[in-house]
Amino acid sequence: MSSTNVDDLQSVVRGGPARGGAGDRVFRGLATGAGVVILATLAGVALFLIVRAWPAITASAEDLPGGENLLAYIWPLTFGTIIAATIAIVIAVPLSVAVALFISHIAPRRIAQPMSYLIDLLAAIPSVIYGLWGIAVLGPASVGLLRWLEDNLGWLPFFEGPASATGRTMLVVAAVLAVMILPIITAVTRSVFEQTPRRLQEGALALGATRWEMIRLTVLPFGKSAIISASMLGLGRALGETMAVAIVLSVSGAITFDLIGSGNPSTIAANIALDFPESSGLAVNALIASGLVLFAVTLVVNMAARTVINRQMRI
């Protein structure tokens, strides 16, 4: 064996890559450059939003849309964005995890494979189609359920009503968003569930565990970080969704926890899409300021998710 090969082997045994190779230097430079480009792009977007939003931030209340201060303008939009995305995640995550487990560990291969293709196909459907489906099919079909919730659970602030006669409610929008983010969460969790070490699953079964006990003790703990990561990806999609929300939701602008009424706060993304073409002057700056808030919310959510994932990996 040559001295060069011996040095490379010793470097690998010590746990570090062989240094000095032209390919390694090129790869390291490309990887570093890609990271710098991403950070520079993120910083550029943040700087653009801050600069363009600054006139609205410093303007007096009477010059802004509606004659109210910027916080009063943006807060209902932020509230609507967060509540719609949160309900969508609450609906989508358990369903997505159940579908991923069914495909990866329960269904026969002749059923699992076509089903995984169909689930992935949902991600390719444009959001405007989901919006049309929500307003033409899901909304009218949910009217009976909305009235039942008002009659039986009206003592809760979420279902106090009066129930919408058209189904254009926050609950229906959240259900549409849940269907939209379901393939994202399902695809990520399914791929990780399928990578659960075989020896752990077989060991659990050999010790007398049932299939569900094996899944609960090995598959779910192994995929916990993937579930969190997939949920945050889906949450990011739900926070920024525009057309489906704009088509389905009946907007009044009021802050309310009522999920079945016809008066709802809009979301930041939908409000920008609907108002931007006809806005000018400070109205545009106010819309960009709301976009800055959405940017900040998304950034905070992803940073929190990364913190949780890192903590789970250390455990």
TrEMBL record:
<dbReference type="Pfam" id="PF00528">
    <property type="entry name" value="BPD_transp_1"/>
</dbReference>
<dbReference type="InterPro" id="IPR051124">
    <property type="entry name" value="Phosphate_Transport_Permease"/>
</dbReference>
<keyword id="KW-1003">Cell membrane</keyword>
<keyword id="KW-0592">Phosphate transport</keyword>
<feature type="transmembrane region" description="Helical">
    <location>
        <begin position="74"/>
        <end position="107"/>
    </location>
</feature>
<dbReference type="InterPro" id="IPR000515">
    <property type="entry name" value="MetI-like"/>
</dbReference>
<dbReference type="InterPro" id="IPR011864">
    <property type="entry name" value="Phosphate_PstC"/>
</dbReference>
<keyword id="KW-0472">Membrane</keyword>
<keyword id="KW-1133">Transmembrane helix</keyword>
<feature type="transmembrane region" description="Helical">
    <location>
        <begin position="29"/>
        <end position="54"/>
    </location>
</feature>
<feature type="transmembrane region" description="Helical">
    <location>
        <begin position="169"/>
        <end position="189"/>
    </location>
</feature>
<feature type="transmembrane region" description="Helical">
    <location>
        <begin position="282"/>
        <end position="305"/>
    </location>
</feature>
<keyword id="KW-0813">Transport</keyword>
<protein>
    <recommendedName>
        <fullName>Phosphate transport system permease protein</fullName>
    </recommendedName>
</protein>
<comment type="function">
    <text>Part of the binding-protein-dependent transport system for phosphate; probably responsible for the translocation of the substrate across the membrane.</text>
</comment>
<feature type="transmembrane region" description="Helical">
    <location>
        <begin position="242"/>
        <end position="262"/>
    </location>
</feature>
<keyword id="KW-0812">Transmembrane</keyword>
<comment type="similarity">
    <text>Belongs to the binding-protein-dependent transport system permease family. CysTW subfamily.</text>
</comment>
<feature type="transmembrane region" description="Helical">
    <location>
        <begin position="128"/>
        <end position="149"/>
    </location>
</feature>
<dbReference type="InterPro" id="IPR035906">
    <property type="entry name" value="MetI-like_sf"/>
</dbReference>
<feature type="domain" description="ABC transmembrane type-1">
    <location>
        <begin position="78"/>
        <end position="305"/>
    </location>
</feature>
